[in-house]
Each structure stands twice: as C-alpha cells, then as structure tokens.
Amino acid sequence: MKRIERKKGAFLIKIYIARHGETTWNEEGRIQGRSDPGLSPKGYVQSLALRHHLKDRPLSAIYTSTRQRSILTAEPLANHSGLPIQSQPALDEIAFGILEGKLLHHFDEELKSEWERFKDDRFIYRIPGAENYADVANRIKPFMERLLRVHEGHEVLIVGHRVVNRLLIGMLMEYPVEKVLKIEQTNDMLYLIQRNTEAKIFHYMDGQVREGL
Q1: Measured between alpha carbons, how far is 29 from 68 in angstroms, rounded to an integer?
Q2: Cα 210 from Cα 213, distance rounded (Å)
Q3: Per residue of the chain (213 residues), what is the pLDDT tens digit?
Q4: Integer distance in angstroms from the first to the last C-alpha of the chain?
Q5: Which domains occur in the chain, in start order?
Q6: SS3 assignment for the chain
Q7: How far is CA 123 from CA 92, 144, 179, in A?
Q8: How many CA atoms lie within 13 Å of 16's alpha carbon, on the beta-carbon side?
Q9: Which residues pair with 23 in a beta bridge?
Q10: What is the spatial distance between Cα 30 and Cα 51, in angstroms, rounded to a whole number?
C-alpha cells in the first residue's frame, strides 16, 4: 500500500472525506464503478446533511470525482459556501469492467468467479476491463500529494467513492494493507483526517463525532 509521508514542521491540514449520497443503483444493489447513476431521494437528503455538517467550517476547497453522484452530493455545500466544485478524474471510482451495472446478488457463474478472484487479491487481480486497487492508488497519490502542498494549514472536502476513499484514508493514515481492506464508509458517513507531523482520524455518524474508524 502506497503511503504519503508526513513532513516535519508541516502546518495542520484538515481533510474531510465524504462518500457520495445513495444512488438509484445503490438502492437496487448494482455495481457502479465508472457508471454514472444519479442520486436517489435519500441521496439528496444525505447531500443536505453534508451541507449541515460543514456549512460553518472555513473550507478552502471542495473536490469531487467527475461522476454526477459525487458532484451532486457536494452541490448544496458548494452553493452555500460559494466555493467552486473541482472535479478530478483521479477521484473517479475504481472501474469494475464487465461487472458494472450488474446486480451484485444475481451474478452468473462466470461473474461470480471473477468477483471472488478479485476479492481474494484486490491489489493484484483485475476483472476484465477493470482496475485493481493498485491502479487506483497509483492515480490518486499524485493528486493527494499536490493537495497536501497546496492546502497546507487549511481545511478541504473530498467527496469520493467507497474504494477511492478507502485508499485515500489508507495513504494518509499510513495503514497496512490489512487495515485498509477493513475501512468501511456508508453513504451518510463523514471522515475527518487531521494531519501534520502526526495523523489522526475521526468519523461523524448519527450526529456523533468519534476518534478512529
């Protein structure tokens, strides 16, 4: 697992990491990846909750992927704060290739075999037409290194996706692979990473703030 090393004397940066709101495909249990479904009604409510959580924070930037579920989740807060949404291809969700659009619990035998092989070695195995975790880590690391330089001493928001956020957190917290694979984030969960010469992580859930995953 690639890491982003902490530098001595760095000013504190606060990085809020949100997952996009629930989509129509989340409701149906479909694999999304690079596909671009819109938010469900529940997802729009979750986007308003994100605005409520962060509307009083002195954010200097809002980053999203290029997928509409990420952008739409950030829009209420961006409209409130007056900050532009900066959509980054590096933050797009992992490509799932031939699995995209398929119902997770209705795979045929071939797709079920591909899914199981991927789950057994997510950093190495590629489903046909897809990426593995290492591919995603390689594309997000340069973005994160730049973000840490440009926004040192500030607060920023990233609205990403399940796999992308898992890898972002792993890099920033310098977690081993085994711990990275256990990171979970529901559509209404918000992480905060505070980082300078040390790194701390907090999560917001059901109106409560707790340190740790």
Answers
A1: 18
A2: 8
A3: 666 666 655 678 999 999 999 999 999 999 999 999 999 999 999 999 999 999 999 999 999 999 999 999 999 999 999 999 999 999 999 999 999 999 999 999 999 999 999 999 999 999 999 999 999 999 999 999 999 999 999 999 999 999 999 999 999 999 999 999 999 999 999 999 999 878 899 998 777 888 988
A4: 18
A5: 13-204 (3.40.50.1240)
A6: CCCCCCCCCCCCEEEEEEECCCEHHHHHCECCCCCCCCECHHHHHHHHHHHHHHCCCCEEEEEECCCHHHHHHHHHHHHHHCCCEEECHHHCCCCEHHHCCCEHHHCCHHHHHHHHHHHHCCCCCCCCCECCHHHHHHHHHHHHHHHHHHCCCCEEEEEECHHHHHHHHHHHHCCCHHHHCCCCCCCCCEEEEEECCCEEEEEEECCEEEECC
A7: 17, 19, 13
A8: 27
A9: 39
A10: 27
| Sole residue written with tokens 């829009």 | 75
- The letter for the amino acid at 114 is E
